[in-house]
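Purpose: get a first structural picture of the assembly so the mutagenesis plan has something to point at.
Setup: two entries, given in the order below. No constraints added.
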Amino acid sequence: MSGWLRPRIEAFFVEVGRFFVLLWRVFAWTPRPPYDFRQLGTQMVRIGVDSVPVVLLTALFTGGVMALQTFATLKRFNAEGYVGSLVAISMVRELAPVLSALILAGRCGSAMGAELGTMRVTEQIDALEVLATDPVHYLMVPRAWAATLMLPALVILANGIGIAGGYVVSVGLFGANPVTYMANTFQFMDWNDVSSGLVKSAVFGLLIAIVGCQKGFYTTGGAEGVGRSTTRAVVLASITILVSDFFLTKLLY
Amino acid sequence: MTAKPVQIRLRGVAKSFGGKRVLAGLDLDVHEGESLVVIGGSGTGKSVLLKHMIGLLAPDAGTVEVDGVRLADLDYREITIFRRRFGMAFQEGALFDSMTVWENVAFPLRRAGWPRERIAARVAECLELVHLEGAEKKLPAQLSGGMRRRAGFARAIALTPKILLFDEPTTGLDPVIKAVIDGVIVDLRRSLGSTTVTISHDMKSTFRIADRIGMLHEGRIIAIGTPEEIRACPDGRVQQFIEGRADGPLSD
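Result (structure tokens, whole complex):
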């Protein structure tokens, strides 16, 4: 057993250790000059602005499906009047943050893994160090903060579009009353529903960036290694999102 | 040249990767202002040796001293600043591929906080030294192998380092470009007066640029001396390597 299990357990703790070391170094380097606002801006566009279409499309259809499913179910209890609240609260608390995070993990976690991985295998990261530039400071700090800031912004958009998707399906397809549906949507929602979703998504953003950068940063083995890092960045970021979602939800409720 | 002070001193440097011993207690002195070329077969740890000199890798055992400072005594931030006295040219150039040639060369200057006008002047100067005028706006992907290396040189010399490290500067280039690159290295040394350490397995260019040659084999320097001394070296392994023969003690 030890022959198979032990190296895997060791590798697991190495990964966890690297994660926290990088997280700490990102925080430690953040307040130090030079401040690279240009890099931050570039990353914010790449992570945030460029993800808008796919995040909105996902939110629209998720809101629509939520309405489809719950309308049919709640009708059995003559409770179809609550579809609006159900769609809105599910979207804002859970679906928009988690789905947007998973999309961002696929779009940007992988890109960070590939970009930093390529820089590693072509010695560009070594070159940074030789040129008296800390790679964590130069590469990871802007990516980490861009993701932390932009994911909540994306989630705000996703919230709105998801609710709109639910509205379109309920009103357009099931003939719900538009006025009561809208009133119902915001009837039970409070500020904590929105804020907990935004806090969660900020944490997810940070996790995606650190995991993506970590996989890229520790890449070995040429083009094949970059491929491996990219895949692992997405898989690991997705798992981290889902697991931390449980604990964050528990904590924030 | 023997009277020159030692700038880089390695003592008993050992390094293993995953159980494989790459450097086995290596001793080496690099004197101020000299051009040392370290030769040796592929995979003998020449690049690893170079990365120890600049502190990119830390030895498992032994010490690396540069200008009398032990690299192991420097903390993370101190070594980042300490590296400004080095310029390193990587095997394939290691240019930042999202930046133009101009931005690549300007990068160390910007990070060191130079004002804009001085950066522009210095970048132009460096590109002239490596004969790359006119390539400022090109991206690394648009350059030939030889041009990429020269752009890498320009970036390495931007902060006028006292020590220049070249990692296999001519590998994979055609003979004419090799001669051009060797010429650039010799010119750079002459104009900067820097100490240079070059890693190579190309004997022709080694003899063109070296004041002294050291041969790395099985984790140690097995022979070191002037080009004439190395040519006359009685060690069969050295002779086999510099003559490029298939049979001999290295192949056993």
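The first strand of chain B starts at residue 6 and ends at 17.
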